[in-house]
């Protein structure tokens, strides 16, 4: 059987509480006992010495042990908490103040007696209890001399058997039981209060654990979750509330990622189907013309063969162009593109790209201008990737700009960055379609057709290339008036 966090915490708390309570009770009793023994031993340390010096039987040496025993009996009546023993120099008990049979030992260890006589520190010092073999008690002791010759020791047990019996009875009295019961009830209420507090503090943690179990059972799909999930306060000072809020945010993020993955997967399927169609068309045409050449080689004229070969080459170029774009888009989406950023003059790059399209632009009488014609701005970017973007954008502008139009490559300093605008006077894009032109395979309804095959991947590739360059490709357009693509570049620190 598995126990939750709170039952395990409560069990540990009860266990630790009991151990601490027992340890405190034991250590308190032990400390109280040793303190009491030390105080009593220090208080009565000179008792035996005074008895030896003041009593004639002991002052001049002991000869009458029976009389000494009667003396001990009398002293014990006067001081019932003491037990008196007379020992020889080796610790053998010669006489004592007790009823016959009460004294079990015949001798006591002499080492503690010598320690007590020769030191005034390390109290309490305990010696053998003649009435209980194996037990030790505090004592007072003094040597007994006869003409400077050690005759024995007076050995006085402090807190004898009757004293212990009275103390035990007091401890078992009604008042002591009431005090013990009061302490037990107080400790029990304290433990109960701690358990309630722990219950209060661990309840949010249990709720969070239940929510996690529900999410796991729903296979992390938010729409499959039950409606009873806990509501968490992200601004709370309680760490569990903030943790629950973070868990909810994470769940929402995962759910959004699932939706995006499903959307991307759907787009990939559509893209794959469209690209398959685009590839099939030039490939089928190429195959058809090559088969015609192969089957009718002898019957075709030189001009027909040349015509078929030209068409086949054109289809092969279109096919290669499509495949190159597909691979380029795949590499960009897979993050397999490496940037080689450097500082270079932007004006030179713009003039070079514009010169590359000069002949094609003249055929349609389109003017390509760099504005301003000369500037000294240096930018920090990947020159190859930027040239690829400019080439795609200018090629699109030429294709969609009618004869006698113009294309401007304008550079403006904007917010410590260089903004590049590629403006044309072409057919423009409608407001309904402008939001989709960066999607792969999307072509506007008014796209100009030419002799080359277009897969609608150029703007998608440009968008991803500018994202790699930490910029954003934006577009503004008016139908029938022209289009402007713009992006910003980081200025180089030095050149």
UniProtKB/TrEMBL annotation:
EC number: 2.7.13.3
InterPro entries reported in the protein's UniProt record: HAMP_dom, HATPase_C_sf, HATPase_dom, His_kinase_dom, HisK_dim/P_dom, HisK_dim/P_sf, Sensor_HK_Regulatory, Sig_transdc_His_kin-like_C
SUPFAM superfamilies given in the database record: ATPase domain of HSP90 chaperone/DNA topoisomerase II/histidine kinase (SSF55874), Homodimeric domain of signal transducing histidine kinase (SSF47384)
Entry-linked Pfam families: HATPase_c, HisKA
PROSITE patterns noted in UniProt: HAMP, HIS_KIN, PROKAR_LIPOPROTEIN
Sequence ranges assigned to domain Histidine kinase in this UniProt record: 274-493
Transmembrane segment boundaries: 6-26, 179-201
Key words of the record: Kinase, Membrane, Phosphoprotein, Transferase, Transmembrane, Transmembrane helix, Two-component regulatory system
SMART domains, A to Z: HATPase_c, HisKA
One GO molecular-function entry: kinase activity
HAMP domain segment(s): 199-259
Major location category of this protein: membrane
Superkingdom of origin: Bacteria
Chemical reaction(s) catalysed: ATP + protein L-histidine = ADP + protein N-phospho-L-histidine
Subcellular location: Membrane
Residue runs in coiled coils: none
CDD domains named among the record's database cross-references: HATPase, HisKA
Protein name, entry field: histidine kinase
Organism: Alteromonas stellipolaris
